Amino acid sequence: MKAQELNSWTQIREELLRRINERVWHPGDIIPGEADLAEEFGCARTTVNRALRDLAESGLVTRRRKAGTRVAINPPHKATLTIPIIREEVEGRGSVYSQSLLKRDKQTLPPHLHAAFPVSAPDRLLYTETVHFADDRPFMFEERYTNLEAVPSFEAIAFDLITPNEWLVQNAPYTAGDLTFYSVNAGQRLARLYEALEETPLFVMERTTFNGDLPITHVRMTYGPGYRLRTRF
Question: pTM (2 decimals)?
């Protein structure tokens, strides 16, 4: 007798996922074959195959020809990145936000960024420098290269009422990205900005975003002394 009749591959996937999560099938266990599951659920074998393929693509099961399908021993744990709007981050700390656009011009990409930001037209980049303030004190210094092939309307924005960060979050959807964290000593320019010693360590975040294979923007964000990154997952 069939345990239950499930007509769609999504219903079958949810039932298989329930059995994995509730340890009906333990990590490393071989689960029943497609024919057996199709008989149990009262559906076509191709429907079961589609559900199993989805679980395999998610890393929850492993499939080997002639060896069957097993529950993954170490399934991946994925986190979704949401790019923050700096204004909202500052305001979320209870501070008053303001910003100053220091520079805005066309620039070619410096050689050290060629690997990180592989644009096809290095002369179609808009370079911006922005200081973000919290209660009139410098919070973060932003250096950004934006690919005008990816977001041509970016060039027409004045950035007096909105920052490059906020405009891109709202108008430039991305499908992938690269994120790097490190620290640097302040140096003369940033030491003046933050009223700190040149040897003061500063937290730096570099981020590159892509829409498919098309690079959108590369940004280097240097935070003031004492900054701590906090995130939830």
Answer: 0.69
